[in-house]
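P.,

For your records, the input lines for the assembly:
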Amino acid sequence: MITTLRALAEPHRFQIVELLRDGPRPVGDMVHRLRLRQPQVSKHLRVLSDAGLVDVRVDAQRRIYALRPAPFQELEVWLERYRRLWEDNFQRLDALLDELKTKEKKRGRTKR
Amino acid sequence: MITTLRALAEPHRFQIVELLRDGPRPVGDMVHRLRLRQPQVSKHLRVLSDAGLVDVRVDAQRRIYALRPAPFQELEVWLERYRRLWEDNFQRLDALLDELKTKEKKRGRTKR
DNA sequence: CTTATATATTCCTATCCACGAATATGTCTT
DNA sequence: AAGACATATTCGTGGATAGGAATATATAAG
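Structure tokens returned:
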């Protein structure tokens, strides 16, 4: 999970991933679209590959990169456990109770 | 989005977020549970706060930190656009077609 | 007002990593 | 086999940042 997040957290890599969302692409195409230098793109792809976010298919001299679904699925599974943050009242209820408690404590004195 | 990812990509911050998933907590509690030194926890919380992932509520000398739902919702919205990766056939079809093309090209010669 | 408790900030340092430049590897074409 | 094309790797460097130690700030308690 951390590996996935770290890989995605770099802006250029994020852009590469966003590009690949629309389908597999060769390196040169990404170089052109993102206006980055070829070595940097290759290096970012290496990081993404090591993180398991992409895989490569060889087509003559070209390498076609594509997203691997697995890490994105894992991200989604992880995120699901945070749904309650906005779907339940959950912390809102908690915060409300705490606030009431705070007000009670402060009764009779000036704030700050 | 990048801001959110960067904040989550650091292991200790990730742990803090995981802790806060179960509800708001004061700093000292996290220090104790994660066995980190207090200044580091405060610094990580600062980063999380700047990234909009948490907010603080003052309770006497203590500060109670809680997750903010918004960034997690945004993450989920972003992730939704990647669902097709595994729900459709999408790239699988694409890859299949490419593979057929490759085999055709290679017909009659030795691999590598 | 002094002390204790809880948290935040500052300063320093070592480490990591993204970039640029140069070069290497691999494959196609002729 | 030679050159062209596509991609990968290496090396060096500057900037960002996490951690440690010390200190500052804020509130509570006596």
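Two observations worth noting. Chain B has a mean pLDDT of 86. Residues 10, 12, 36-37, 39-40, 43-44, 47, 58, 60-62 of chain B lie near DNA strand D (CB under 10 Å from a C1').

Regards
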